Amino acid sequence: EVQLVESGGGLVKPGGSLRLSCAASGFTFSTYSMNWVRQAPGKGLEWVSSISRGSGYIYYADSVKGRFTVSRDNAKNSLYLQMNSLRAEDTAVYYCAREQIGLGADHWGQGTLVTVSS
Amino acid sequence: DIQMTQSPSSLSASVGDRVTITCRASQSISSYLNWYQQIPGKAPKLLISAASSLQSGVPSRFSGSESGTDFTLTISSLQPEDFATYYCQQSYSTPHSFGQGTKLEIK
């Protein structure tokens, strides 16, 4: 069974940093691109970042470019999102999701809540 | 960037109704269009990829179609478990933008 489990969310002050992790199991992690998608409270879905199987291709939404860094460790079956210079508008549930290239995200984690507030 | 415009933003319907949700891309995305269902408090679930390909385990009352840059999700006969929010997403180019969502409510 495919499982994605996010962790690392919490309360952080504006300007602070946080590192999210996503532990993958039940599939060959190294053969899939992975995504981060977020959802602000009561709002819609926003694609945040994608990383290819071997980390050779990395993409970001303009809203997080220069502040967030996605990475992965295929040996540890793990995906990460380093978030720096956090703003109130980054408050959201962050989901990691497995991507079928060009065919959408077919498995999602349960999400981890990041709250940016003083 | 490609903009995805979804309509309507909300919809009231009854069990057994046929409903249609539309998503328009701001430019050609070929068939790189996906539909998701999200129940409150849960992660999104992929229903349809490549505009019309039903994911395994998704009931056949769900279907997708396309006409140029217009895409449609149809639920042929609403069931109680279908009341949720639906999102389209293009996977043609990054950023892989989502539509704003359609909240399907019980009439």
Please characterize this protein's 3D structure.
The complex is a heterodimer of chains A (118) and B (107). By secondary structure, chain A is mainly beta. Chain A has no helices and 11 strands. In chain A, the strands form 2 sheets. In chain A, strands 2, 4, 5, 6, 9, 10 and 11 form a 7-stranded mixed beta sheet that branches. In chain A, a hairpin with a 5-residue loop joins β4 and β5. Chain B has 107 residues and is mostly beta strands. Chain B has strands at 4-7, 10-13, 19-25, 33-38, 45-49, 53-54, 62-67, 70-75, 85-90, 102-106. In chain B, strands 2-10-9-4-5-6 form a 6-stranded mixed beta sheet, with no helix packed on it. In chain B, a hairpin with a 2-residue loop joins β7 (62-67) and β8 (70-75). The model of chain B has no long low-confidence stretch (mean pLDDT 97).
List keywords for this structure.
heterodimer; A: 118 residues; mainly beta; 7-stranded mixed sheet; 4-stranded antiparallel sheet; 0% helix; 53% strand; globular; B: 107 residues; 6-stranded mixed sheet; 48% strand
